[in-house]
Amino acid sequence: EYFCNILVNHPLIIHDEAANSTVAGLFHMLCCFYYEKKQYDHALEHLQTSLKVYLRFLSSDDIKLTTTYNNMGSIYHRQGLYEQAFHFHKKAYDIQVHYSNFDPYAIAAYACNIACVLVEQGKYEDAIPYLQRDLQIRKRLCPNRDDIQLSTKYHNLAGAQFRLQKYNKALENYQKCLEIELKLHSSNH
């Protein structure tokens, strides 16, 4: 950590893209270390430094920054700062969906993260399109329709629909979830 702090503003590094990329990556790893220890303030501090270094040579809407933005959203989410969490998850999502060579796994993850933030705020109607997008992508990427993650996606969507008193839709998705669960688990469990 001490070494990274020395490097971040070193005159020989500050104008070298490869060196900046390495330093930004090191700060990102420090963020992950503190995140795992649930020290979110330290994690966020290191991630913000990582972003600052990346922005020396990348535009703020570069596809390479979506992971950084998403991770910032996750930290804010853990801290209960839902508006900031939404902002950064949405920024990651928007960049990814507008990129010509987008990553469907990333889009699904970011959509799910946005939905989780919205659900925690009680904004179920706003969460549903993101839950649906996550489900659609998972169905397309999952050749085996009996996937536990697919079951979870149906369950999450049904939960939001239930809270909005859209009981028929909720029941339909809960049933799909149950069908998958029954196929995956024998009666011995």
UniProtKB/TrEMBL annotation:
Gene3D superfamilies: Tetratricopeptide repeat domain
Pfam families: TPR_12
KW GTP-binding (keyword) present: no
TPR repeats, residue ranges: 66-99, 151-184
Matching InterPro entries: TPR-like_helical_dom_sf, TPR_rpt
Statement: the UniProt record of this protein carries the keyword Repeat: yes
Lineage top rank: taxon: Eukaryota
Alphabetical UniProt keywords: Repeat, TPR repeat
Alphabetical list of PANTHER family matching this protein: AAA+ ATPASE DOMAIN-CONTAINING PROTEIN, TETRATRICOPEPTIDE REPEAT PROTEIN (AFU_ORTHOLOGUE AFUA_6G03870)
Name of this protein: Tetratricopeptide repeat protein
